[in-house]
């Protein structure tokens, strides 16, 4: 759980003297004292705002703390002191949106299962099997090879193979069974 900065000790409000005109106070931007007062007065309401946008307390506290830090570092750009709270609210909303985007992206990435990777040995063994199968297929008769390729690699039915090759259904069955038998013999033979 994140550590929340303690409430700053009460300081007397900055009282401009005669030389400080109203223009100087607004030109300097929001003062640290004004931001401290805003922190004391509105921390809880900003935390509730973040709680409405996010779902866990730790994230809400992080967002509100980050909002105060960002407005503090950009306090000279907040020319009107009355708009400090508006800037803080908008910063809390923007940071909450960013936190939700990161969370959604993380869930999308986590929901995709990692592909099962074969080990190097398995890949080499599979390659050897493929090579020996290709070599054995080259040793078959032309019709046997055509029937086996269409039937098992192109995933056609026996009727589709017969129609494609222009032969009878019985011939497809015969070439297929003889081809498989020849493959078994070729694959079991030592290389």
Automatic annotation (TrEMBL):
Domain of life from the UniProt record: Bacteria
InterPro entries with a match to the protein in the record: RNA_pol_sigma-70-like (IPR039425), RNA_pol_sigma-70_dom (IPR014284), RNA_pol_sigma-E_actinobac (IPR014325), RNA_pol_sigma70_r2 (IPR007627), RNA_pol_sigma70_r4_t2 (IPR013249), RNA_pol_sigma_r2 (IPR013325), RNA_pol_sigma_r3/r4-like (IPR013324), WH-like_DNA-bd_sf (IPR036388)
Domain RNA polymerase sigma-70 region: 39-103
GO biological process: DNA-templated transcription initiation
Keywords of this entry: DNA-binding, Sigma factor, Transcription, Transcription regulation
Pfam family for this entry, one: Sigma70_r4_2
Residue intervals of the RNA polymerase sigma factor 70 region 4 type domain: 131-183
Protein name: SigE family RNA polymerase sigma factor
Native species: Streptomyces aquilus
